[in-house]
Amino acid sequence: MTDIVDQQTRSRMMSGIRGKNTKPELALRRALHARGFRFRLHSKNVFGQPDLVFPKYRAVVFVHGCFWHRHEGCRFASTPSTREEFWRKKFEANVARDSAVRAKLFAERWRLATVWECALRKPDQVKATTDFLSAWLHSNELQLQIGNKDIRTRTNP
Q1: 18-154 has which CATH code?
Q2: Is Nucleus a UniProt keyword of this protein (predicted)?
């Protein structure tokens, strides 16, 4: 199956996709900062360069795009119908890298939260997500995952 846009247009569209400072990430950062939390951004000193690093709490937060990181069961994690083999490999590599980063961070005794993009689409969702993240930072839980319809915590990796 062929692409519905020409190669030049597709290239321009793909180059506009950000890896850092995305809208969901900025919304979460503003909300956390307003609550008094201070953090480092994309620290090169922490494996995987998490989106937010809270040294005081020995915690890191990744804000994952549902499409790129394959949020299971999320309607935003669709698969393009063109070049299916390319996308399958791309997504598998992303998920494998995320898993390796998580394992390394746990081995280094970091606490880890994953906030999915779908949990930050509306202002009330940002508030609810910030509430859960704030409570998690003050807890002893090792892991937190926040999606649009699911919030999971775990005491061990």
Answers
A1: 3.40.960.10
A2: no
